[in-house]
Predict the structure.
Amino acid sequence: MSDIQTKSIRFSAVGAGEARPGLDSPASKAVQLNIVNQIFKHRLQQSDVDRLLHALSSDEREEFVSKIGDLLKRISALLDVYNKLADVLSLDLLLKRLVEIITEALNSDRSTLYLYDAETKELFARVTVGEESTKEIRFPCHVGIAGNVFTSGEGLIIPDAYSETRFNQEVDRRTGYRTRNILCTPMRNRKREIIGVSQVLNKLEGDFTSDDMAMLEAITSQAASALENAKLHEKVERARREEEQMLEVTNAISRELHLDALLAKIMSVTTQILDADRSTLFLHDPKNKQLWSRVAGGVGVKEIRIPEGAGIAGSVFMSGITANIPDAYLDRRFNQEVDRRTGYHTRNILCMPVTNKAGHSVGVTQVLNKRGGPFTLDDEKRLRAFGAQAAIALENAQLFEDVMNARNYNESILRSLSNGVITLNADKVIIKVNESALTTLRAKAEELTYKSAFDVFGGRNSWILDRLQVVEAKGTTDLTMDTDLVLADGSTSSVNLSVVPLIDVKNLPIGFMLILDDISEEKRVKTTMSRYMNKDVIEKVLQKGNDALQGTLQEVTILFSDIRSFTTLSERVGAKGTVSILNEYFTEMVDVLFHYGASPDKFIGD
């Protein structure tokens, strides 16, 4: 374009002084159009210029040359837009370059591009702060001069900004900048849809003109496609980053099963992804009708509890409606006393219910003080998505806690049992052995756990494997009474064995449980006592244990039996005959006594 501009200022004054039609005449306009077309196509030679300008007077030629220079400047700016923006996908970089082009092309002090956000119905601009960081400015799409241009679709030229009621002078007072004049036009895409507003301030020489407005509209129209592509690219990239971040944090919290640690991790991640100051997760306690949370305090964990309907958190939990509060102190539900007591200042709040898979509220997430402004709709979407994942993790953690409580409960029961208990999985591998079983088997836990039943109960104890096979085939409990169990040291012990099948919630087999009742001591006692006592009496004595030694008060029948003429009889039959008679007599009498639950006390005689 610099070559074309050079040619344009070398136009010769051919035909000076001759009567020529004016610049506004149809003939002159046709000549001008021809020159413009030739210039734009880069095909205009110096001889062609001389010939075409021959139809104009010297004054007209000077004016026309000036117009051609302005036109070339505008064409250069449009080509600059294409060259500098065509391959740019970064919205921040695109806006920065376009602002530079507009400011230079319109010979102004500064300019700003406001894009329309259809989701929030706001106009937003990116302003560079420092060398690299960018600050975003947002306001409703109908506010101020930019909002008026966006809603009306008509450009504005304001020669004196301070005489315009829609101009916000407070911005100048706050920044120290002085706005003199303003040019503001809508930005349209190829479908003539308004996608934003361009605003230019303080033309360096004079006021903005209709030509400036046309130039600004042409530049922004040229850049509209690039801006829409950059917005779409930024949206896609942001969604991709959020998905990656969400996947990362979801994996992190899904691996945590301890409730206290999970609560701490959820609050930390929530604060991070929303770029906030702090956050709190309140869970619902339906039994006490309270919301509770655990927070770090000093060297331990402090639990906070509030009524389920109290404050902002309670209101959100009861209603199930998200609360996005730009100014906490203007909300009557906010308890300012907490800030006064802690010295913390709450600016803005985002509070959202946490729902489970069934759609029931299980708690509330409350996030405080977003950095850089109030919480946005995007923040609500991110928190809602993360809250759904957190609810699953919370359910898993609470289920894990319930399982651990049940496990501890079962462990306590197993430890307290006097009977030995051995559990096996479906492959007959020993999983758990309680202390009583270790005592009965006279073995150590590491010698039994995670060992196959075939290795542990093989050989002389193979009868246990046979009972397992029976239970596996029938699916019912099997009981074996008073059987010898060979121990690890080679000794034997008398046991009662119960083999119980274990099933899951679908009634499918998942293993076995062996219950060993060591009756060795009891059997020895019974053997001894059975010589003198009825078995029913023996059972009662054994059941009472040491209590039986203290005696009991009850009505009894006492039988005294005597053998008539025993002395004479014994003398007549002799010793051998006497023993035979006594054995026969005692056998008959003791059987009768045992039949009626009696026990012999003593046998006496001569």
User: Anything to note?
Assistant: The two ends are 151 Å apart (CA to CA). The chain has a mean pLDDT of 77. The first helix runs from residue 2 to 8.
